[in-house]
Amino acid sequence: MNWMRYIAVALINALGVVVGIILVPAPPTLAQSSPTNLDLEYRIDESGLQLPGFEIDSRGNSNLETVEITPKSLAELYQLRDRIQAELKKISNPPDINSNLEAWQYQLQLKQYETLVKANLQVEAQIKFEEKTLESWNQAIKIATEAASYGQQPESHTVEDWETAQQLWVQAIDTLRKIPRESFLSSKAIDKTVEYQGYLAIATYQRALAQQSEKNKPETPQNLSPISTANPQFPGFKLYGDTNRDGIVNEADEQRPEQWSLSVGPLVLFNNDDDDRNGLPDWREKGVNGAEDEKDLAIVHFKVSPDYNGSELLISVDETARPYINLFQKTAQGWKSVDLSGLTPLEFNSDIILGVEAKQFAHQNWSGLINLKASARKQGNIIATDTISMGVAPWIMSPNTAPVSEVHISDRGDNQKIVQEVKTIVETTDAKVKVTPGATLWMQGTQEIGYVQFPNAEGLKDYPVVLKGNRSAEIDDYAQSLMNQNFGWFEMGKPRQLDVLNQWADWYNNLAVTPALPEYPLGRIYYGTADNVSLNPEIIEFLKAQKIQGEPVGIDTSWLMVRHVDEIINFIPSFSGEPLMLIASPGEGIKLLKELAKQGYEGAAINRGLSTQTTVRATLNNQLLIQHNQNLQKQKIEPLINQLKQEFNLRTDQIIEIPALFSYSGYAWWPNLINSVYVNGELLVSNPKGPLIDGQDYTQEDFKRRVAVAGINVNFLEDDYYQELQGNIYSATNTTRQGNQEPFWQNLP
């Protein structure tokens, strides 16, 4: 469990010996592992956090010995946090620069404060990680407990019961497998997985015995009722839904698959649009609110022969799915809510019509699988059963290359000129522009607009669904304002309190998806991660649970000021149909400046008209800046290109390096051309304000040459207002894009 490493050093200040903690950076793999991946070395005694044998002289030179202690449980983590916070409380604030301390004393005290703060953040992150892991563990135990109930009286269970038990054991095993290997619970999860696999084998064996028993039983005599216990097949007692996903439930759907999967079996829609426009998503309504809402139900037919007259008909839902669905029966008086526990009988009919809607997508604690079980009860005895498995249609992210139906932008601030430019360009492409008065300035960070697909009698149904940002109430309100008929809205996760360096981590500028790739027909999701803090882990786990856009790829953004992945990577389409990846290149940025100097344009202005205006000469003469960017190219960009070639299966000719420079603090030295928006053949790009050579912007012309292979029209926008705030046109807008024309179940990775 080498998940955390602190090297403790004794630091002397005016009050005595205390400890500072130097943090060794951990690999940025939060999606699959704990927030840290390091050992812990220090000793705690009555005098605080310190080490024996450590001496420090009047000049601040030190001699260090270390003692290793590794937390082995969540309880020990809590103890560690309490002790670090106790030390932090003693210090309270960083030292006063105006105090009468020698320079080395001030530096030591400052280091002490900073490293304790970082240590506290890191331990808090690990605690949250372990607490979330514990939730998965408890969920697996809960599912397994339900599955185990089928083994208590095996002789009384039917084939369908053992099928349900199999599915539950599979769910429990899948939930355990979500526990990362770095967790304290990892070894226990492995042991439990092995145990549950044994129980799964038993359930599979019992199912085979039950099937064989049914085959060996004699046919029912003609004078016996077909619902007698002598007939285990229960003729005339059948549940079936839209198994073939043609949008129509009929006899062709009666042949059910062995197991439901994303590729086959009835789908259920997370009913998160607002068909009656009352400001609430439809799943929160107490019933079905009209014909449009009825179209969003997954229909299940329950055929019952007259032989079951006089019986009570019951429907139950597996305990795992119960909190996440609504179930209705269609009656003469309209749609009536159904008790999911199976205690309240349905209205008897020979062809009962049920409607199912989900109240959430699949996520970390629920696979999205729904098991409906129908039972006939007579004189207190169950005389017939049938089951059907269904699953929730996943949420799909839209890439920057997909067709656009609407562009979102705010008129907040001094941006009227750019709003008009966007409208002029976008509206020529048959897309609309939605200008929202006073909305958040940075639209891209407020929400992620994806879509869902669902089989419908009229053809494939799809509509946009917006995932709200985990930020302020103002932003939440904007995302929810998009909800309408056939425009869904939902939330996942909660806002986090992050330190000042990582305060933007959960903005959706930090989340994107590629266009279609050879092994990922619906693209592959990627996000930024830095200093053991990435996009909200709840969001990452949610994206994994959709299972259709690959394992999300974490990308190092630690060297950027706002640490967003959209600052260094973007995708545009091409003539060939293969996507092109644009990537920020400090190496190419230096080359561009040297080309200008070589041609005698050292005095040419860059960032023309902006508060950051400078010259080619001044930039090249800033040797520290040039060295910093050379290091970025070698240490960050080149490894990233190699990583993404492998992860995204890209060829070298699909990668276009775009000239860029970055300051020491991580903001773009000139307007960021990566931060662009593709809209139906038009590329909206910030005006880079490059050197004017013979009346033409040299940086603009260079960019157009590099992307010429794409065959799209490039538009440079005057977004000075955003550029002065260290943002660009992509950050300032958001887009509603059309879904894939083919159903997702035909395009699985």
Question: How would you summarize what this structure contains?
Answer:
The chain has 749 residues and is α+β, with helices and mostly antiparallel strands.
Largest sheet: 5 strands, antiparallel
Low-confidence stretches: 1-34, 36-69, 219-232
How many strands in all?
35
Overall SS class: alpha+beta
End-to-end distance? 32 Å
Q: What is the subunit arrangement here?
A: single chain
Within the largest sheet, what's the order of strands?
7-9-13-11-12
Explained architecture:
The protein is of the alpha+beta class and 749 residues long. It has 14 helices and 35 strands. A 5-stranded antiparallel β-sheet has the order 7-9-13-11-12, with no helix packed on it. Helix 2 runs antiparallel to helix 3 and helix 3 (159-177) runs antiparallel to helix 4 (186-216). The longest helix has 46 residues, at 103-148.
